[in-house]
Task: structure prediction
Amino acid sequence: MSAIDTLPPLREVIATHGLVAKKALGQNFLLDLNLTAKIARQAGDLTQSDILEIGPGPGGLTRGLLAEGARRVLAVEKDQRCMPALAQIAQAYPDRLQVINGDALEINPLDHLTPPVRVVANLPYNVGTELLVRWLTPPEWPPVWSSLTLMFQREVAERIVAQPGSKAYGRLALLAQWRSNARIVLNLPPEAFSPPPKVSSAVVHIQALPAPRYPCDAKVLERIVAQAFNQRRKMLRAALKGAAPDIEDRLLAAGIKPTDRAETIDLERFCALARLVAQP
Result:
């Protein structure tokens, strides 16, 4: 394996600092620095952007981002054990890496970032979906981030890019595709990680659109979609019974049969329904 910088190989870093991956923290470390650099490249040109990285661990992807020319990286890491390894990277890349020791679910990183901002992360499995939903549902759009390049379990990645009619299609697909372009750009087998997880992984690249594909109120759309897929086996007239007293009429007005199920309805018709439900 060729080196991407002058720092020690990741296996050596992990051994030096005793960084055994903790299942409770959703940790699975990537050890191949050529692979982490390849993931960094999926985010596009990094030279003019600040990068937010969640869960850097021993810093494999961090080093990939910096080696690929990231203007600046803000890394948020919950595991105190990783701080010395990350400090070593910060020394090798002066003034380009800031590390915050804390919980990504509780920290607002915006105070430390200068737009344009890209998010690039091998997300901890136990918080990945929650963080994604937060990034997809900010109070205002366009969001502070221009793109998200994120690693998930393959199953979650497929849910983000899923199309109507598939088993994977649901809330995540609609939230992602309403205001962004989402595609799987890289697949990774379990053996790429230490320890190897029981499932395959995939990197998803999500590019923010300047405006939603179809107009509607974000909160109404989120509520309708959540309600529809919470009981996805039910016909929509039953699943959305509480959404409006005349829900069958509004479904028909949106081009949806009351007997249809949520997984068959495309984004455009969900947005049309959200507009109709928002009316008195």
